[in-house]
Amino acid sequence: MERKYPHLFSPLYLGKKKVRVRNRIEADPTLIPLLSPESYPTEGFTAYYRAKARGGAGIVTIGETAVEWEYGRSHDYQINLWGSRAEDALAKVVDAIHQHGALASLELCHGGVFADLPFLGGRKPFGPSPFKRPSDGLITDAMTLDQMRMVARAYAEACEILQRCGFDMAVIYCGNGWLLGSFISPFYNKRTDEFGGSLENRMRFPRMVIDAVRERVGDSLLLEMRISASEFDPFHDYGKDAAYYRNAICIEDAVKAVKMVEDDIDLVEAFMGNRADIHQRYANKPSCFQPNGYYSSLARAFKTAGVKIPVMAVGSMDDPALAEKGIAEGSFDMIGLGRSLIADPELPNKIRRHREEDVRPCLRCYHCLDRNTGRYNTDKVLRFSTKCIHRFMCSVNPEIGQQHMYFPPSGESRRVVVVGGGPAGMQAALTAAERGHKVTLMERKNALGGALCFADKVPFKKVVKDYVDYLIRQVGKSSVDVRLGVEATPELVEAQSPDAVIVAIGAKPVVPPVPGVDGDNVIMAIDACLNAEKVGRRVVVVGGGQVGCEVALYLAGLGREVTVVEMRGTLAPDAGFTHRVGLIEKIEENVTALTETACVEITPRGVTARDASGALSFLEADTVVVAAGFRPLSEEADAFLDAAFDVCAVGDCRHVGDINTATRSGYDAALSL
Ligand SMILES: Cc1cc2nc3c(=O)[nH]c(=O)nc-3n(C[C@H](O)[C@H](O)[C@H](O)COP(=O)(O)OP(=O)(O)OC[C@H]3O[C@@H](n4cnc5c(N)ncnc54)[C@H](O)[C@@H]3O)c2cc1C
Ligand SMILES: Cc1cc2nc3c(=O)[nH]c(=O)nc-3n(C[C@H](O)[C@H](O)[C@H](O)COP(=O)(O)O)c2cc1C
Ligand code: SF4
Asked: Does domain 12-364 have CATH number 3.40.50.2300?
């Protein structure tokens, strides 16, 4: 049988015992908040990792686990490894992963200077040297030799626990500013004793840890080293901060560091990043502004330099052609997938079975990272609150976090009409059809996609376009009866005698009450994307939320001179935290942005703006783009209330949100039928 990706799906043998991995895909560690109050894995946790194994990954790795509980914890979602209840729960996770043919791995991490104070009981975080933390200004301690021995012992003990629970591999995290990575890094390590200075000295503590582990568990556990092969982003212009960030682990150092320990580790993952560098928050999990495999050249550098052990590339490696080519050419031996396996844990199997068109693409929106950890923006202050976490979620995979739940079939096939073919309507229709209902989807335009039709035009929204295309394909393959070009009215819907109606008619743009807003030179944001040829050379975008900023960026990319005026003090406060970091960087590079500035009048020649001091200025523009937010079509949705006994509104017509809220509300509504 001819295989499209023979290298990607060929086995790999790891370690001295030649442990077989069925293919070249590791499900990279991605934490989930599904732990018991004592921090033990729950059923949901097990189901999450089971799904990755069942979906075909060769190795499934459990995320960032604190290797010791006194100084090592850095956040809420770390498993408690200690005690028989922990071991019982972990053994079940291992069994679930093994049941579906994958190797089970767990990442061991020590928070080091980034350990989180609430878990430290008054103790001070430590690292190689005193370090002033950017988040709170706290200056951390330098570790003593006794503390290093304590941590090395903790790694050995943790690996012994993993061995007892049946794990095949442990990941020793040596990057991102966590403890071991910080010792290797000249950015953190300023010691003048035998643990600082030369690379040999900086590697002495990680070496001590690896030796302690090998002494305790021998070759019975595979060891992966996840290293920041570069702590700064080699493809990014840091401007005036360049010297500060470049005094960090670089690829040349990383290659030498790996060569120093490669006899005792079995696999190395070429990660990128440093927690102290906010740019890395999105660059090491490439955003919509970066290509697939953004930093896979770091993995290639290991291979070129003759690293003997298998090397893994990571960072949006979900393009199978790219992965296949890289492995075939010898640029790397494996790929690590993070977000794409949250979006679709079945990705490996679908690709292997030549069903790429069924892979649900990841949007690179970071909601799994930010919303699930309660991270949000408030006027430049990063807030973190676990209180706002209700359900672990992914913008495109509404089942995530609920994989352990069984929703019984409704028992009867009901006639369901869905009004509106945006993401909410399409998801509702798909889920209802999967549950055995007879679904009719009415869309007034001649194409499905709703507000997301803009994504066709905007190059950095390719991921959104891929998602819309995916939904349209899935609807096409399903039993849903799609009626395009049909403006649904309550009468028309009622005439179908539906048992249930799901209304997903979206929102409409807010037109601010500014003199001149109805002028010929004014265009709404979505129309500016769809018809960029109508937009003149000089542009003012009124409204600097996420949509305004992204439209501005798109137009700037087309060569327009763009100014954004925003009344609030910050740009894009509605964007997710991590996406916003990248977006603001791009805005600063390409667009003039005026915050605390209101548009008070639009004339045929431009915009009169008033700044925070009350001073007026005139911004010349050929075109004014309005991006002043959206209003839910709630009353229009309520008009359908008498069309059936069960009627509900989903997506933007219920509450203006995004793809995440649209997908989830569509899914939830269909699940309730
Ligand atoms: C320019 C722009 C950029 C955006 N970028 C992003 C982004 O990057 N990420 C993100 O997550 N979100 C983004 N959003 C938001 C996202 O598009 C919306 O939240 C999402 O599309 C809402 O989905 P929905 O299905 O509820 O509504 P919509 O997508 O608006 O779909 C509603 C559909 O209902 C149809 N309809 C309305 N009335 C009727 C009727 N009577 N009969 C039949 N059909 C009807 C409409 O034609 C439309 O197709 C963006 C929005 C805009 C405008
Ligand atoms: C929700 C989420 C949780 C993550 N948790 C961890 C973690 O526990 N440990 C870790 O080393 N990396 C973690 N990462 C990083 C991923 O392992 C991965 O390296 C990164 O997302 C880049 O791969 P991707 O582009 O395929 O997503 C996480 C990423 C996400 C999105
Ligand atoms: S939440 Fe967004 S970034 Fe995370 S996996 Fe889902 S689509 Fe991808």
From this structure: no
Spatial distance between the Cα atoms of 548 and 630, rounded to a whole number of angstroms: 12
Between vectors from CA 112 to CA 373 and to CA 277, what angle results, nearest 5°? 65
Written as one letter, the residue type at 553 is L
Give yes or no for a contact between 72 and 66, defined as CB atoms under 8 angstroms apart: yes
C-alpha distances out from residue 395 to 340, 372, 663, Å: 12, 11, 7
Q: Which residues contact 558 (CB under 8 A, 6 or more apart)?
A: 532, 535
Whole-number Å distance between alpha carbons of 248 and 250: 6
Residues enclosing ligand 2, CB less than 6 A?
Answer: 28-31, 63-64, 107, 173, 226, 271, 285-286, 314-316, 336-340, 368-369
Please tell me if the CB atom of residue 362 comes closer than 6 angstroms to any atom of ligand 3: yes
Q: Residue 416 forms beta bridges with which residues?
A: 439, 500
The helix or strand, by DSSP H or E, that contains position 438, with its residue range, turns out to be strand 438-443
Q: For residue 390, give both structure tokens.
A: 């209700």
Cα separation of 298 and 313, whole Å?
A: 8
Report which protein residue has its CA nearest ligand 1's atom 18.
658
Residue type, 482: V
DSSP string across 7-50: TTTS-EEETTTTEEESSSEEE-----S-B-TTS-B-HHHHHHHH
- What is the residue extent of each domain of the chain? 12-364, 415-508+632-671, 511-628
503 lines ligand 1 (CB under 6 A): no
Radius of gyration in angstroms for the set of CA atoms belonging to the chain, rounded to a whole number: 26
DSSP string spanning 200-266? HHHTHHHHHHHHHHHHHHTTSSEEEEEEEEESS-TTS--GGGHHHHHSS--HHHHHHHHHHHTTT-S
415-508+632-671, CATH topology level: Rossmann fold (3.40.50)
- Regions in the chain scoring below 70 on pLDDT: 372-391
Architecture of domain 511-628: 3-Layer(bba) Sandwich (3.50)
Query: Of 481, 396, 487, which is closest to residue 437 (Cα–Cα)?
Result: 481
**Ligand 2 centre from 380 Cα, in Å?**
24
Map residue 303 onto helix, strand or coil. helix
pLDDT for res 381: 39
* pTM for the whole structure: 0.96
Alpha carbon of 422 to ligand 1 centroid (Å): 5
66 Cα–ligand 1 center, Å? 42
Residue 328 φ/ψ, nearest 5 degrees? -60, -40
Long-range contacts of 37-45 (CB under 8 A, 24+ apart): 38/80, 38/85, 39/78, 39/79, 39/80, 40/79, 40/80, 40/85, 40/86, 40/89, 41/79, 41/89, 41/90, 41/92, 41/93, 42/89, 42/404, 43/404, 44/392, 44/401, 44/402, 44/403, 44/404, 45/93
Q: Can you list the alpha helix ranges (DSSP code H) found in 591-651?
A: 634-638
Any ligand 3 atom below 6 A from CB of 90: no
Encoded amino acid at 321, one letter: A
Pocket test for ligand 2, best of 45, 59, 285, 579 (most atoms within 8 A of CB): 285
Q: Would you say the CB of residue 365 lies under 6 angstroms from ligand 3?
A: yes
